[in-house]
Predict the structure.
Amino acid sequence: MTMRLEVLTKNLHMSNIGSYNERIKDFDWSIAEKELDYQPGQVINIGWYCSDRICRMGKADKQALIWEGSTGAEKRYTYDDIRRLSDSIGQYLRDLGIQPEDRVCLFMDKVPELYIGFLGILKIGAIAQPLFSAFGDESLLVRLENAQTKVIITQKKHAPKVRKILAQLPWLKYMIIVDQEPGKPLQEREVAMNMEELPAAETFQIYPTKAESPSVLHYTSGTTGQPKGVKHVHYSLISQYLTAKWVLDLRDDDIYWCTADPGWVTGTSYGIIGAFSNGVTQCVLDSGFSAESWYRFIGKHRITMWYSAPTAIRSLMKAGDEIVKKFDLSSLRHLASVGEPLNSEAVIWSEKVFGKPFLDTYWQTETGSIMISNYPGMKIKPGSMGKPFPGITATVIDPEKYEPFAEPGKIGLIAIRPGWPSMMRMYWNNEETYNNKFRNGWYLPGDRSSIDSEGYFWFVGRDDDVINTGGHLVSPFEVESALLEHPAVAESAVVSKPDFVNMEVVKAYVTLKPGFIPGKDLDLDIMNFVRKKLSPLAMPQEIEFIDALPKTRSGKIMRRILHAREWGEEIGDTSTLEND
Ligand code: WTA
């Protein structure tokens, strides 16, 4: 069976992790604490670890961040630059009256201010709340409301979305615009901040955060209810530093490229914290995807470590093998992937064209760092997520008994014993949902998998209705709520449908209010309506108008039936169906 095909990686080189089997024996997180000179009870501040400490290690003049914009413009920052500029941003926020634990939202494209501002926020003990810059006003509103965000840092092109909802955000004291032209008038609550021109903060003192001090608040979507704010703490650094070192295999001479946007957890855990705390040089490409521009970027900067996502890899596959030969990609040493199932074809293809396979890694916003993974030097089974990171006790449990299966090969729920450093500490103001994620002392990420006789995990699917489109989680509930606000929509049900590149995309079944007639224009109008309100990711790729939605006798819409229809699956038990 090709899915179970076993290949040995060619890169059985000496890696940071060394032997996985040796590492899992007697593993203790104090390994990372010692490497970071951290003693329990002491001050621990991610902002300091990602800049000041690296400077103190003699790398002040080393390149920390090489940024390229969509027009080809380039900006470079050394570790001393990011230390100095994050101090200045921290001081600027303090002068505005921002207190420790206040939520400061970063709502920007992948510009340098996002990366450096993130460190500045953490340095003053405030909580960084990154939000994806393509979010529309409705997506923004629910997340800023829930977090009672005090400041939002953004670019002028995104400012109109904030202005639109300002009246509904009484806690929001300031909107800081990082690229405002001098002399241009500002509106209510707006201030302009040019990072490069901020005064030096010579006497700046980093706030003495401790292990349990809150650091980052990331929003993630569930099946029901509004998105949940996942609260992380400064101690998460311990996991993020060590997983970046052992899984991403980051080394001093690496030129690292994490393609994720810091609006999502991969972009902060590994696009900021894991990278900078390991003192590597990282590159950021702030422009849309094209195979040509990605290969050019790797060749130009001589990227050695590339952390990406299955959707991007499948898009590259689609672009073909010939285009790869036009570029010099010989610098690539190590590749890894996260966010959705990495099919065996993609692993085998990458080994063929790049000479290295993409190693799959599995984790989620709540876990803060990689939980299950393939490791450099370890035998890879293409299509498998690999094995738990040392120190992580993960298994698959029977969904009925909440106990691990006695024999391998059974499909059940992924379950992880809590207690690793980067585990979320709470869903913001939502203790009930948080408590619901635990059973029998296990944390349940909400995914299904099996484990083979050699301990390798094989992802099966999610255990809820959340849609993972191109590695981004979309809540059907949020899309349905947005659809209902459209004047023509009476009812809707949102499900996923298969897609080669994105694995799955959003599809909406819609019934119309009297007087509205199905048609192409109405399709597009509804799609655009959702795109503007939520985001391009959440926009249905297809709208199907139907006369009535399948419902239970109690009136609940049965998404399951529509889902089965899209995926060509058995419909299963329909005994509770209303129109039976
Ligand atoms: C899914 C992204 C299959 C899974 C870091 C998880 C994966 C959700 C993989 C988290 C993988 C992540 N194979 N599925 N290697 N990695 N997922 O919170 O359903 O945006 O629970 O974090 O993506 O998505 P999140």
